[in-house]
Amino acid sequence: MEKIYKGKTIEDAVAKACKELGLTTDDFSQEVLELGAKGFLGIGSKDAVVKITYTPDVCQCVRDYLEGLFEKMGIDDVALDITLEKETVLIQVTGDNANLLMKNRGEGVDALQLLLSLIVNRDCGEYYKISFNVNDYKEKTKNRLEALAIKTATQVVKNRRKTTLPPMTSFQRRIIHAKLQDFEKVTTYSVGEDPNRRVVVSYTGEDGPAPRPNRDFRKGNRNDRGPRRDGNRGGKGGYAKRSDDRRPRREYVPEGEVYTGPITHLPGEKLSGSAAKSSATVETAGASASPVTGGTPFTMDSEN
């Protein structure tokens, strides 16, 4: 990694680099870019410029970045344990406030791990793998998903039918694939797009998938059902039962016959539609006529 430092002299620039980086002169190499000049009475003076090349401590780099990030996010009272094993940086964050990073199925943990990987490999000049863990989240998730994988695979073999699991992150899907890699008569693959990508556990036995059940066991369909016992549909959403006190319909008398039914309306009652027109025709012809014939509704005058 390279950085540029300036000072009145070369020694001042190097001392500034040692203080900022926390290193000694044996931990980095330096290249003088400009010697600097005092000038005359301060006029035309120039600072010395030195380029420092060093290999940063990857653990300290990760610590500085996370401490600054947690401070901006308002996450305090957490402990950071950062170690380097070969080419893998192991990061363990513990504390109650750190649970904020595990929301949304642990997507915050996966996002931080990817971000740290990009930063470390850019600034450190070497390739490192990053393993970011919060309150043993990965261990707990692994145990839970492995149990789910075994249970699902057992059901798939028993029923000989494939099963699709809920959406998972890439870390969670890898656990399912790895656990069922050697499971007999079962194969796994992923379908869909993130963030709704799912794992499918499918049956691969020699006897093939189970046949679909026969769903034609019902006798007839809803249109073949007989009438209800009471003869009415009734109930919520049906037709209400007819009551005896309903107002009878207006009756019409065929041509040449005498009307003997009940009176359908009283004098002065307003009618509408064809009944009003027919009533007006009868009254015009003569209200004293009795009985009423001619296919018109029955009416009465106040005189009768």
Short description:
The chain is α+β, with helices and mostly antiparallel strands. The protein contains six helices and nine strands. It is 31% helix and 18% strand.
Provide the fold topology.
Layout: E1 2-7, H1 10-21, E2 28-34, E3 48-54, H2 58-73, E4 79-85, E5 88-94, H3 103-123, E6 129-134, H4 137-159, E7 163-164, H5 170-179, E8 186-191, E9 198-203, H6 274-285
Parallel strand pairs: 5-6
Antiparallel strand pairs: 1-3, 2-3, 4-5, 7-9, 8-9
| Strand residue content | 15-25%
| Rg from Cα | 45 Å
Q: Encode the helix/strand succession as letters.
A: EHEEHEEHEHEHEEH
CATH topology (level 3) name of the domain at 58-135:
GMP Synthetase, Chain A, domain 3
Structural class by secondary-structure content? alpha+beta
Helix content: 25-40%
Question: What is the overall pLDDT average?
Answer: 76
CATH homologous superfamily classification of the domain at 58-135: K homology (KH) domain
Describe what you observe in this structure.
By secondary structure, the chain is α+β, with helices and mostly antiparallel strands. Among the domains are: 2-54, no CATH class; 58-135, GMP Synthetase, Chain A, domain 3 (2-Layer Sandwich), CATH 3.30.300.20; 138-203, Ribosomal Protein S8, Chain: A, domain 1 (2-Layer Sandwich), CATH 3.30.1370. 31% of the residues lie in helices and 18% in strands. It contains 6 helices and 9 strands, in the order βαββαββαβαβαββα. It has helices at residues 10-21, 58-73, 103-123, 137-159, 170-179, 274-285, and strands spanning 2-7, 28-34, 48-54, 79-85, 88-94, 129-134, 163-164, 186-191, 198-203. The strands form 3 sheets. A 3-stranded antiparallel beta sheet has the order 1-3-2. Strands 4-5-6 form a 3-stranded mixed beta sheet. A 3-stranded antiparallel beta sheet has the order 7-9-8. A hairpin with a 2-residue loop joins strand 4 and strand 5 (88-94).
